[in-house]
């Protein structure tokens, strides 16, 4: 039995309909403090829609999402971010014409000061506390040699790493990762798994959407399987691997 205060995110009877299409149909899911929870499922299962509902990008048609007991429904994405929910996108959302260091400082300033404001740009001061913390965070994640390179000039793998640093410097209580290894070569994927393992070991609560089962089974404590907008299975990795419904709906077509 999990105590209620161990629940970080409570997804409660969430439905999302797009012009008659049930992208999410009565999804219930609890994310526990400190766990890495993978959400898997075939294309079109509703995984990204669920994440978008959780971060306030999409309103649910019905149901609600609670974060540490606070209802998120109706809040704006930046308000949800300020409560401690950070999302790393499928496509890296970084500023290509700012340096790597400026990208991280921008995230720290905009998180601290609320919605992004352009005048923050004049406050980049790498000798200050924010600058020093940004440099340290980038060095810890292997981006120390790229501090003054433009975000847009990084390799795909490094852009992903930069996005992760941007997520982490906001000191989230919950990190949501949308396919963090999509399109990566195996070496970059393995490097990303290592970074995520360090983040996981720091005690962070993580939700990860991922198609690559090597990544999922390397990191997940529990797995929820979506298909056709519904939760069809939930459990620890060994339960999911052996679940006939999951194999039929999904794993049969993926390499496990
Ligand atoms: N903004 C939208 N407008 C209309 N339909 C949408 C919208 N977003 C998603 N859908 C539909 O909702 C369903 C679920 O899509 P979603 O992107 O959440 O699935 P997914 O599991 O993330 O898929 P993938 O693994 O391919 O990213 C799909 O049928 C999709 O076409």
UniProtKB/TrEMBL annotation:
Pfam families: ABC_tran, BCA_ABC_TP_C. One of its GO terms (molecular function) is ATP binding. Residues 9-253 form the ABC transporter domain. The keyword ATP-binding applies. GO terms for cellular component: plasma membrane. It comes from the Bacteria. Keywords: ATP-binding, Nucleotide-binding, Transport. InterPro entries: AAA+_ATPase, ABC_AA/LPS_Transport, ABC_transporter-like_ATP-bd, BCA_ABC_TP_C, P-loop_NTPase. Involved in beta-(1-->2)glucan export. Transmembrane domains (TMD) form a pore in the inner membrane and the ATP-binding domain (NBD) is responsible for energy generation. This is ABC transporter related. It comes from Rhodopseudomonas palustris (strain HaA2).
């Amino acid at each position: 039995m999990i105590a209620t205060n161990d629940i970080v995110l409570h997804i409660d009877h969430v439905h999302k309909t797009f012009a008659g299409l049930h992208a999410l149909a009565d999804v219930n899911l609890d994310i526990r403090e400190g766990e890495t929870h993978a959400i898997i499922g075939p294309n079109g299962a509703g995984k990204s829609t669920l994440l978008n509902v959780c971060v306030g990008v999409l309103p649910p048609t019905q149901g609600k999402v609670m974060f540490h007991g606070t209802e998120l429904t109706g809040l704006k994405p930046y308000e949800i971010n300020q409560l401690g929910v950070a999302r790393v996108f499928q496509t890296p959302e970084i500023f290509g014409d700012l340096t790597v260091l400026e990208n991280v400082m921008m995230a720290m300033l905009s998180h601290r000061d609320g919605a992004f404001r352009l005048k923050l740009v004049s406050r980049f001061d790498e000798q200050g506390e924010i600058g020093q913390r940004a440099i340290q965070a980038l060095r810890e994640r292997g981006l120390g040699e790229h501090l003054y390179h433009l975000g847009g000039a990084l390799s795909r793998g490094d852009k992903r790493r930069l996005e992760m640093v941007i997520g982490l410097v906001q000191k989230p209580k919950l990190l949501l990762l949308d396919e963090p290894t999509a399109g990566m070569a195996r070496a970059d994927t393995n490097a990303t798994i290592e970074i995520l393992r360090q983040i996981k070991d720091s005690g962070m609560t993580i939700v990860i959407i991922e198609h690559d089962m090597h990544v999922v089974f390397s990191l997940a404590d529990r797995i929820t399987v979506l298909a056709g907008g519904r939760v069809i299975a939930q459990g620890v990795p060994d339960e999911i691997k052996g679940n006939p419904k999951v194999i039929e709906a999904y794993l049969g077509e993926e390499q496990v």
